[in-house]
Amino acid sequence: DTTVKQNPRYKLARVGKPVNLICSQTMNHDTMYWYQKKPNQAPKLLLFYYDKILNREADTFEKFQSSRPNNSFCSLYIGSAGLEYSAMYLCASSRVGGIDAEQFFGPGTRLTVL
Amino acid sequence: GDSVTQTEGLVTLTEGLPVMLNCTYQTIYSNPFLFWYVQHLNESPRLLLKSFTDNKRTEHQGFHATLHKSSSSFHLQKSSAQLSDSALYYCALKGGRALIFGTGTTVSVSP
User: Fold this and answer.
1) pLDDT one-digit tens code per residue, B25-78
2) Which of A49, A60, A105, A110 to mutate to test the interface with B (most CBs of B within 10 A)?
3) Which residues touch A62 (CB under 8 Å, ≥6 apart)?
């Protein structure tokens, strides 16, 4: 099974409220990623976990949190949603083994902040 | 920083005609990996092609691409488009830890 699952598929949130998105994979991949995709823009890496080590991109460092309670699950947490967080959030996983490691993507969660 | 440019936002063509999607990149890394990902409607992005070797043609599922480091390009081609090729195509680059995507090209193939 090479699927990455994301829940929920659609999320409606109010400004100022927290948001928690969930991703899971059963491929025993050691690396899991979160990307943000806005219309007419490229998917942008927000953060990734290599095993238990969290790496966050510098320009989104303070906006997103994440946890990885076990190898299979990874969450993306927004403490206080703003309108600018409305986007598609894509989760991906890979088995580290070089820079050519294929990333397997989930179907995405579409977040709308009102 | 690293970047990937896909000049066409939308490509429309008739079934049976050739397809070429442009991809150029900028990177500080001397040996980047280049990828093409494809996303069909209501599906997840999945890997189509990848390459590391300069001037070597890579093929998969009827598509092919050649990495040209001299021109920093990795254009995707197919000799004869099929209806099932209608999708969103991303070119992506990896030199360090992050996968850098282009904005994507939507291909629409009609009968």
Assistant:
1) 999 988 899 999 999 998 999 999 999 999 999 999 999 999 999 999 999 999
2) A105
3) none
* A63 touches B: beta carbon within 8 Å: no
Q: Chain A residues with CB inside 8 Å of B47's CB? A: 102-103
Q: Which of A42, A102, A107 sits opposite B104 (nearest CB)?
A: A42
Q: Looking at A1-5, B58-62, B106-110, which range is the least confident one?
A: A1-5
Contact A60/B at CB under 8 A: no
φ, ψ at A84 (rounded to 5°): -70, -10
**pLDDT at residue number A2:** 67
How confident is the model over A18-59, as pLDDT tens digits?
999 999 999 999 999 999 999 989 999 999 999 999 998 888
- B17/A93 Cα distance (integer angstroms): 35
- Cβ separation B103–A41 shorter than 8 A: yes
Strand pairing partners for A77?
A20, A65
Q: How far is CA B43 from the centre of its chain?
A: 17
The string of DSSP codes covering B35-55 is EEEEE-TTS--EEEEEE-STT
User: Could you give the dihedral angle defined by the CA atoms of residues B77, B78, B82 and B83, in that order, rounded to the nearest 10 degrees?
Assistant: 0
